[in-house]
Amino acid sequence: MEAPPLHSVVREVTLPDGVRLPELLPRLTPTGCWIRRGEGIVGLGVADGATASGSQRFVELSRWWEERRAVVEEAPRPAALEQIPGCGPTVFTSVTYSSDSAHASHLTLPEVILGDVAGHTWVTVTTVDADDAVAAVLARHGLALGADGALTLVDDARDSPEFPATRLRAGAHPTEHYLDAVAAGVEAIEERRLEKLVLGRDAVVEAEAPMPRGVILAGLVRDYTDCWTYLAGDLLGTTPEMLVTVRGRDLAARVLAGTVDGSLSAAEAREQLLDDVKQRSEHEIAVQSLLAQLAPVVELISAQNPPAVLALPNVHHLSTDVTGRLSRTADGTLPPALTVAERAHPTAAICGTPTATAAELIAALEQLDRGPFTGPVGWIDAHGNADVGIALRGGLLGAHDRSVRLFAGCGIVAGSDPESELAETRAKLRPMLGVLGVED
Length: 440
Ligand SMILES: C=C(O[C@@H]1C=C(C(=O)O)C=C[C@H]1O)C(=O)O
Description:
The protein has 440 residues and is an alpha+beta fold. Helices cover 27% and strands 34% of the residues. Strands 1, 2, 3, 5, 8, 9, 12, 13, 14, 15, 21, 24 and 25 form a 13-stranded mixed beta sheet that branches. Strands 4, 6, 7, 16, 17, 18, 19, 20, 22 and 23 form a 10-stranded antiparallel beta sheet that branches. It binds ligand ISJ.
């Protein structure tokens, strides 16, 4: 059966009270979010969507959006907004790290998307029902649009909701399990079974009442300006690592591997990252894995060399930006963003080298369903532009948003010390623990 068309309208607006999008977040209940350095998009409600699992999850999701975006009937867009990526119907997506996960991978097309990019603020309204008026859709999300383009909040939620009391409890395993897993990983590397693997662990934060998603996101946006703050389905966090950005034929990525604590000064961090053989080789493995995996879909690709140091409030990372140009497929089209993401995933930054050996050992040692953690997360618009990050420094909300399962992991190479790696996972949990008001 042919999919019914999607109807979409884009309007240039001023946001309520003339604020920027991040300031509006605490007063919204978003279903999708992607913000960095104060700019991005926030989705409200769900117009349509798809889920998939197993080894064909990328293919199934990608096919669904290719079919859906082909039947979008869009009202003429204001000229100033024609070229803005993420404007118009856009899906938020989260794909699981492993094909074995019990969690679903999904695409979510919000009914309303508020955008604030490059000095433009707009609203995209997408419906399946052609008779669903823009005003009625906006009203469902507490918004009203004046004739002058001023967007207002109808129920006037001036103040952010109270954040409930929270507490931290252990995840699937006690921390000793993580120390043992790292020690076993180092042993496997010393036996030359593999070069590198990434081991993760989880922790759970419970709340006395539902935690307002908009407040969590606003906190992450405020504290981690240089990261991409995301929400897709029940997954939210703030990631510094970009799996793949697609703008037309242009592709970009940011590879991170090699980490020291954020309490070090810039000079100390540079010395311990740039001048350290172990950190540099761990980083190089991750960069090379991405370049090799993307080779079949690019005609040009290059990596920054030497790497830079990315300073975040909680950690410093070795960081390499990659840029390239996508190859056209046999029929002259460009590969869809999710196909490119599937190629790139999993990089050695979140899995290891060789990939298959590392993936097997991760499953055996972590004993954790990572779900969407370390999987692709981001958005894809109807022109095929996309930002797909790696889901790090985040967690998965539980029933009624009264709990969140957090995840953090570390790259293990020859000579890695279990206690230091455990400390590194603590540092990587800090963005979420901070905004959830929990002390580790
Ligand atoms: C796995 C995580 O981070 C990854 C591991 C890194 C490392 O070991 O140095 C650095 C960045 C990420 O690629 C995480 O944040 O949970």
